Amino acid sequence: MPSIGFVLPHWLYWVGLLVFPLIAMYLVARQRRNPPDRRPSLFIAYLFWLLSGFLGIHRFYLRSSWGLVFIPVFLAILYCNGEIREVRDDESRTYAAFEQAQYAVARARLPQGVEASPEAKEELQRAEADARKLDSEYQTAKAIRDHWKDLARYGAMALAVLLLIDGVLLPGLVRRRRALELAEPSIEAIHPDSSSVHEGGVGEDPTLTVHSKFTDTIDGISTKVGQYVAYWALIAVFGYYYEVMVRFVFNSPTNWLHESMFLMFGMQYMLSGAFAYCEDQHVRVDVIYAQFSARGKAFADIITSVFFFIFSVTMLWTTIRFAMDSVSVGEHSFTEWGIQYWPVKLTMPIGAALLVLQGISKLIKDVMIVTRKAA
To answer: Which of 159, 210, 238, 348 has the fewest CB atoms nearer than 10 Å to its CB?
Structure first.
């Protein structure tokens, strides 16, 4: 199988983080306006074709037995790659021994014009014989590796041809499958029961039902930012899928993908903190707190908000200086990918500012409960 040396460009990484959530939010909104049915979808079919077409999953999704054609080809590629990995050690070992033998031959040769003793001639002949033997072993190992590599390449080409053909045929295949299932009475729109969806979090915060124009504005900002960065988790699914494929199928593991993912999750963690606070999703030790009335909980939250603001305001102040230092020097990572660090560190003061604003919103709603101004 040919290797893949693709390295994600920096601009594509940042554009992907900005644009992907917008596309995902649009698709989700459209899906909510048009509830799905149980018949095959062209979008899902192409998604299977792109991510797992090498196993014919898109064909199985359309209930076509032609998917069985893909499996033996893919298994053959995996087998060839396994043989390549095994023979690669032999090739490296024999090549290293061959280089040492060449060095021994060069050392055994005497300068021109110098009469060689019988012992020196014998040593040179022995070194040359060893070099010829090791060269033969290296060429044999290399020929075996090239043989398996060629077979893997042919399998990859066959798989690519099958996928390209199905990529063109897929719209027609989906239309025909939908037409066959159209008359089935069991096919109907899916309307999920929202009451069966478990809402995580503590859910003890009495301010969840309190609203005002000012606090709703802050809550809306926290919610929109949190929903936006939540879609980054889907990028990780595609990213690690790519890493598994290029590592085990193409023998081309990456370094940049792991760095891109932990940086992305770090930014997601910082920017989603306010949303989690707004929805009461942070961990709370509520053995005593849960026994309070709504006013008692609000009063306890007002008292403990002092510690919250000490933490959040301190974090905001320190991260502003931390991020500005990074921006001023255009900080990059020290890895071979060399991605920019300053945009990552800019999310720290942004997330801290959102957390402070959300704390202000919660404090206002707690005061409204205590003063009985909350509806």
So the answer is: 238
* C-beta of residue 150 within 8 angstroms of C-beta of residue 121: no
C-alpha–C-alpha distance, residues 30 and 27, integer Å: 5
* 22-73 pLDDT, tens digit each: 998 988 888 778 766 678 888 889 989 988 888 899 999 999 999 999 999 9
Cβ burial of 39 (10 Å; 0-12, 13-18, 19+) is middle
Q: Can you tell me which residue has the tokens 């049915």?
A: 37
What's this model's pTM, rounded to 2 decimal places? Answer: 0.72
Provide φ and ψ at 329, rounded to 5°. Answer: -105, 0
Q: What are the residue boundaries of the structural domains of the chain, listed by start?
A: 40-181, 211-370
The DSSP annotation for 200-226 comes to -S----GGGG---HHHHHHHHHHHHHH
Task: List pLDDT tens digits, range 204-217.
Answer: 688 888 889 999 99
37 within 8 A of 189, measured Cβ to Cβ:
yes
Name the CA dihedral angle for 205, 208, 210, 214, rounded to a multiple of 10 degrees: 110
